[in-house]
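Reopening this ticket.

The earlier resolution said the output was attached, but the attachment link was broken on my side. Pasting everything inline this time so it's all in one place.
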Amino acid sequence: MKEIKIKGIFSVLIATLCLSSCLKKDVMNIDTEETTSTIMELQFIENGSGSTINSGMQYFSGGALTYPGSHTEDTASYNISLAGPVTLGSDLSVTVGVDATRILDNFSSDSISYELMPDSLYHFVSTTAVIKAGERIAPMKLVFYPSKIDITKSYMLPVIIKDAGGKTVSGNFGIIYFHVIGNPLAGPYVMTGTRYNYNNGPVSWSGPAEIPSPNSGTTPYSGVITASPVNAKTIQLVMGNIPDPVSGSAVYLITGDATFSNITYDFAKTFTDGYSNIIKYVVSYTPPSATQKASFHLMTKYNNTTGNAGNDRLVDQTFTHQ
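Inline output:
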């Protein structure tokens, strides 16, 4: 079992800044009007540094589960925390659990309708913990099963402090919104395609109806690859085997419209920064529905330098959802 701690991903939005500007930014954040009280909170543990990050709607994005779909199980670490100026004079037993009524708390801000995560997708290592007298933290663990998650669906698991032994639960930080953003275009695809190589400068290309004869051979593509959801409308797919200047693999960022009746696509910034003269075509697209899987045919021409003196490439790929 691999343990992965939750990492907070924060959007720099004015609304978020307004919500959180009145809150202290130290480890033991609490509501400012309750600074003289003993307050119970839940806290994320940031990946890598091990430092704590606040929970609640202000830090909703920190609860995003981004484990690889191939993993059979991963463990999220979080804390039950005692905030405020007073420590405990005796041991305190605290209980956590799921509050199914909170799954749409986010709806007014991002309009994603989450389903309550079924209990087959997670397991509490324990729902109770004891904060010892004189201490402030009780570490907790929650196991998720990524390989069982249907990545076309949006799931939420609102974890709250259910029993704080008579202590007050923070109105800001008493809940963690663990969640998975689903997307009907996400999942495994059978991919076939070809890269046409043109050396010694740019080549003229008038669009999908014409493929100029390559002067430096071709590279075939085939296999089954996974489209990962970036958000409820956009997926990420690896583009052929083209080396990305920074991350090692060039990616398509494919976005559906409001009803997924059409798609557009772009690339990660590291790709667009490293290559030039990019021309994109959605040659064909079959939208997902209750009776059919999505498929799409993309063609992209680019120059493999940031100027015009490099070598052109034409990538022709078809993806069929499984």
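Reporter confirms the inline version is readable. Confidence is low (pLDDT under 50) at residues 1-28, 30-34. The two ends are 28 Å apart (CA to CA).
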